[in-house]
Each structure stands twice: as C-alpha cells, then as structure tokens.
Amino acid sequence: MDYQLTEEQQMLVDMVRRFVRTEICPLEDNLDPDAGEIAPEDSERLKEMTRKMGLYGLGIPPEFGGPDVDVTTQTLLSFEMAQHRAGLYNPCYNVFGGAGLAQLYEATDMQKEKYLFPVLRGEKTSFFGLTEPSGGSDPGRAIQTRGVQDGDDWILNGAKIFISGADHADFGILFARTSEDKTRNGVTCFLVDTDMPGFHVRRVVHTLRSTKYATEIQIENLRVPKENILGELNKGFAIANDRLSRYRIPYAAGCIGVAMKAQEMAIDYVKIRETFGGLLASRQAIQWMIVDNEMDIRTSRHVCLEAAGRADRGDDFRTEAAMAKLLGSEAGGRVVDRVMQIHGGYGMTKDLPLERWYREMRIRRIGEGPSEVQRLVMARNLIGGSFH
Amino acid sequence: MSIRLEKPFQALTSENLVPIQGQLGVYQLADANGDIFYIGYAGGRSLFGLHGELTREMEEQGDGTQFRCEVNQQYISRYEELLMLHKHDFGNLPERVLSEYPYKIGVLSPGN
Ligand SMILES: Cc1cc2nc3c(=O)[nH]c(=O)nc-3n(C[C@H](O)[C@H](O)[C@H](O)COP(=O)(O)OP(=O)(O)OC[C@H]3O[C@@H](n4cnc5c(N)ncnc54)[C@H](O)[C@@H]3O)c2cc1C
Predict the structure, then answer these.
(1) CB nearest A32 (choices: B44, B81, B108)
(2) I need a labelling partner for A283 at 20 to 30 A (CA). Which of A226, A343, A348, B1 fits?
(3) A71-81 helix and A7-19 helix, angle to the nearest 10 degrees
C-alpha cells in the first residue's frame, strides 16, 4: 500500500502544521502547563482563521455542513492537530469545531433540531453517559441505571461515573436498562437535558488528566419524554456503531501525532546535549531508542491510515480501527516514555509538554474502550461468531 | 469524603506561611469574618508554588486576611471543582475570580 500524500493533502498538512506552530504553540507559552482552554477572544480569532482555511467543522459530514475532506486526509490532519501541549485531549483547543456525538446523526428530525444542530453551530455541548460504577468494558451487562415507563414518559434512576464534561454540558446521551433482559438487548439510549429535575453532577473525578475532567452523575427520578429516545427502545447499542468505530481512527491519530512531536523533540535534543564528552546522538543506547520510537510511530501510523483508507472506500474497517486505537495508544505511551528518558530530568518537568503527554497518554489505553476490549473486538471480527 | 476544603482558616502571615512549601495546589482567601473572597491555585508556572502565591497574596491583601490551602497535583480540576462548589453554596463566584476567569463554569450539585 502506498501512502504518498497527494499534492492537496500535502498542502493541507503543511497549512495545519504551520497553524499549530505559529498560532497554537505561542499561546501555550503563556498558559499554565495544564491549561485546557485558551482565552475566548483567541478562540474566536482562530476559529475565524480555520473558517477561512475551509477546515472548520472537520469531521462533520458534508451533508451537515462540514468540509468535504475524506477520512484519510482528516487522519493526516489529526496527526498534526495534536502536536502541542494540550493536543491529546484538546487538539487545537477545538478551533476546528467539533462534530458532536456520533449517535446524534441518527436522531429524529426533531431531535436533530434541538440537539445536533446547536452542537454543530457551537451553541451547545454534550456528554456521553455510558460507564457506571458497575463497569464500562461490558456496559451491555453492567448497566444498572433503570428506565421505567410512566405514560408517555420514562423515569430514570441510577448513577454514572467517569462522564467527561457532564458539568458543562447542556444535554447528554444516557444509557439505561429498560427491560428485564440482562444483556445489551435491554438497553435504551435517552437524550437528557442537564437542567431537568433529577439530574445531578455530584463530583469531579480527578484523574491523570487534569483538564476535561470526568464527573460522577446521579439520576433521581429523571422524567424524560418518550420523544427523547435515541434510536429504538431496547436497541441503544445498535445506533451509530459505524461512526463509533470511525471515531477510533482520530483517537489513535491524536496519540500518534503526539508521538511524532515527541520524537521530533528527541531528535533535536540529542544533537545538542553532551555527556561524557560526546553528543547523546552518538550513543548507541540513545540511537536505538530513537529507532524504536520510529518503528512504533510508523507501524501505528500505517495501520491508522489503512483503517482510514478502508473507511473511505466503504470497506469494513472495524478490525483496523480497533487495531489502530490499540497500537496508537500503546505506541504513543512507549514513545513519550523514551523521549522523557532521553531528556533526563527536564523530561520530568512541567517546563516541557512531555510529563503532561505521559499522564494523558496513559488514559488513552483505557478511554474509548481499553486495549483488552479492542482485542475482543478484533478477535470477534477475526474468528467470527460469539466466542467471548 | 468531603469534596469541600474544610480545614480551618489561618491568618495570612509570614509566620503561618513558613510550613507551606513550594508545592502545586489550590487555596482560598477569606476576610476576617471567614467569608471567602478569592479562590486561586499555584500551578506549573508559579515560582515557589503555594508558598510563592500565598506570599504574593499576603503582600497584596490587607490585614485580617485568612487563608487555607491544599497541596494537589491536579490543581486545575481541583480549582474548577472549588469554583463550582462556591457557586453552588453561595450563588456566584467571588468578584475577583469573575474578573480573572473568562470561561463557562460547570454546574455541580454535590449534596451536603
Ligand atoms: C478520564 C476518563 C474519561 C472517561 N470519559 C468517559 C465518558 O465521557 N463517558 C463514558 O461513558 N465513560 C467514560 N470513561 C470510562 C471508560 O470508558 C471506562 O473506564 C472504560 O470503558 C473501562 O471501564 P471500567 O473502568 O469500568 O473498567 P472494567 O470494565 O472494570 O475493566 C477493568 C479492566 O479489565 C479489563 N477487562 C475487561 N474485560 C476483560 C476481558 N474480557 N478480558 C480481559 N480483560 C478485560 C479492562 O480492559 C480493564 O483494563 C472515562 C474514563 C476515564 C479514565
């Protein structure tokens, strides 16, 4: 397979790389090293620039107003957008706009008006409420939040944990068990407004990621009209599977982008840092770390682009997307770790972005389906059937 | 486990700052009545961490100012949590915070 970039792809990659280096990185020089946001006026100014670049709303399907950029090109750009301090969880501080939750594209027209379109216009934010204290890897069996029908409404009760951004969100999607079935066939997906009585964000869940923190939610007699069921009753997991698999590609690309930037830092540093009368670049132990980094980056990048290419061609890409997510997040962790080693004490400090990437990269092996779950997905696709 | 900062306030004096070291973390300032008028943090760019930030506050604030602080590596999420708690408990953020914090604040309903 040939991954020679087309002229247009190269031009876009160069443009976004320049944007990150000349617009985003200088702002970070004046922010706290753990900051998750830029000043609102900078955000507006930069959004104006990305609109002029024709790249605002990247990830939004063209029929919903996004730019007509294929998945492969989006992936190439995702590698670039992550290459700054906050880039793993907040690539370019969202100035390229967000596509919103995948499930919303399968909403009814009424739901799209109320939820999807305001998200695409940047007026509303949302959360994704799946994981519960009883477990997130196998939510189909673990979900204990209950939905009971009451006339035309549903009454929800339960708890969710690790829910990112629920405290800031205007609404979210919440999965609840709505039948006696103890498997995924008894789970329904609801759209809930966060100002509805009975919706409580009880606390911030502090993790290695200090911004875009997770929260714990309690749902007490939350009354939701039946029009707010997303997809079909008891088929909450059937919606948006394709889009959810697709999301693994930019997720992986973010990890790989950070690894690429860390590798660039390492190569620059070994050419100037001297020990024992010679440059680090001349030490075989260091050279091998650089080579191991490159192998990690290229293999994960290759699989990530393969997944993107399959998605563009309309081929089944679930195995490749899961593989890309697993490889990208694990390779990213190894690369950042080696680059910290190469930087010695400075690698541990908040003066460099490495310690933040190190913490946040660790979450990538858990979020959006842990490595083990990605292996389950691949095994299911490779072996077929239900041997799990 | 309470998520509020509940330790007693102490007078913001150089003597009371001696045991406060250069770690990262969050702090609250209150007037002589114990009414909180500022919530801040010592982040990765603070020279001498909490000690440095509180020393600066001591030099800028009037007599009678009190403080309490918490060492916390996750100072940004803890800071935002304290802002949300303050808003929940008192209906709004302290004025100085409002003038410094241009972002949308989340909503917590922590119970008591
Ligand atoms: C910072 C952060 C943000 C998050 N944001 C969200 C969010 O916005 N919305 C949301 O719904 N969730 C969110 N999550 C939750 C995340 O998706 C879950 O943590 C994840 O799915 C794992 O679930 P769990 O933590 O309950 O682990 P468990 O399901 O208890 O699994 C524990 C471990 O066992 C492994 N394991 C499970 N089954 C098997 C098996 N069959 N074979 C081998 N190993 C297995 C898992 O891979 C994992 O390593 C977030 C998590 C974090 C840390």
Answers:
(1) B44
(2) A348
(3) 30
Name the pTM for this structure. Answer: 0.96
Give the side-chain half-sphere CA count within 13 A for A44: 3
What number of H helices and E strands is found in chain B? Answer: 4, 4
CA angle at B86 for the pair B84 and B90, rounded to the nearest 5°: 125
pLDDT digits (tens, 9 = 90+) for A10-36: 999 999 999 999 999 999 999 999 999
CATH architecture of A238-383: Up-down Bundle (1.20)
- How many residue pairs from chains A and B have C-beta atoms closer than 8 A? 64
Known active-site residue A368: yes
CATH topology of domain A126-230: Butyryl-CoA Dehydrogenase, subunit A; domain 2 (2.40.110)
The ipTM is 0.93
Cβ contact A40–B103 (<8 Å): yes
Chain A residue with minimal CA distance to B107? Answer: A167
Q: What's the CATH code, domain A7-94?
A: 1.10.540.10
| A131 ligand 1 Cβ < 6 A | yes
Model confidence over A201-242: pLDDT tens digits?
A: 999 999 999 778 999 999 999 999 999 999 999 999 888 677
Residue among B45, B76, B104 minimizing CB distance to A210: B76
Task: Look up residue B24 and give its two tokens.
Answer: 């990262």
A118-167 tens-digit pLDDT: 999 989 999 999 999 999 999 989 999 999 999 999 999 999 999 999 99
